[in-house]
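SAMPLE LOG
Freezer: B-3
Tube label: C17
Construct: single chain, 421 aa
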Amino acid sequence: MPSPFARIVAGPLSRALASRNARIFFGASLGAWTGLWMHRIGVAWLAWELSHSAAWVGLIAFADLAPAVLASPFAGAIADRVDRVRLTMISQGVVAVEALAVATLTGTGHISIGLLFALEMVSGTAASFSQPARQTLIPALVAREDLPAAVAANSLLFNVARFIGPGLAGPVIAIWGVAPAILCNVLGHSFASLSLRWLRVDAAQRRGHPATGSLLAETLEGFRYVARHPGLGPIIAFSAGTSVLLRGVQEILPPFVERLFGRGAESLAALTACFAVGALFSGLAVASRGRLAGTTRIAVLAVLAQAIATAGFVATSSFFVAMACAALIGAAASAHGISVQVLAQTAASPAMRGRIMSLWALVTRACPAMGAIALGTAGEVFGLRIPTLAAAAGAAAIFAWGLTRMGVIAQQLEGSKEEKP
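STRUCTURE (predicted):
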């Protein structure tokens, strides 16, 4: 008799990974993301070693994520009018080159906190182009009825890498230092970029539409599309607000590890892995549903669970309790993120998909960056516990607003395959 876990994996996810294109795409993504998480752990620890400042660790996280504020909207419009495979290859290649520069400078002793900030800005800008471009390719890899499972597979593999990467990074950093951990990102992103040549994507799916106006006009059209949409607008705004308040904790973990629990790099890796384990199991549960109905409810209720777990994370002085809370945070964040992305991918017009995904990139990259810098700065003045508890309370208030809109959002996003404002 198959276990529940086996039935989940053998169900919708197996269909999502059935095609040759999907196996190539997601296999390469797993390698790139494993390298990315090793890079993130290495850079966060490097920033802490260079500065011993929570504010600087927040600024480095901000440097990686904040370029999405300016770049992502234009990146989405570009992804809707150029070859999406080529755009993904180029942007992932830039990430690999930036990682090589950081590893080389660190290994030779020439890195500084200011130079690290500048290089992470470059990587963050490249990732802002890569994320919407590669996400617009997902519907081209699977049948339409398997799109929710493919989106879930995308998130699940990210969280598998989030478990593997820190687990590898901790011992590597402890034994050999930061540079070798970052070099793994060079290998992962280089392979991911080159492997895209093996994809067989229909020409109609490689481009959204021919250019119909200026890049600025098409970018603004994407904002108007979402703002007028009675389902997409509220759910993306809801996710953005809660992401600013709750995701900052995950972006500046080193100060929490050392100041609240008195631990080092290996415990940082263990804590990051706890986030990933929770996200993995939660994502499998969401993916196993195989249906759109009820997805909005999951997206909204998961925010309350994340706020409660975040409050528990900073309220305790026990590292083991904090690990349990981290797993719950990861589970809730994964359930919310997968659900919102499924709703957005399903509801978006194909010609607008790049721009919709670029706004989602703003939520997943720019909003955590703002949260990280605010939390890091406040942490220097008030300590880490009080600002984090205040942020969790603010997220609970946004949840209450989302609860009042949940029925309308569900009607708009779950009621049909494509909605236009």
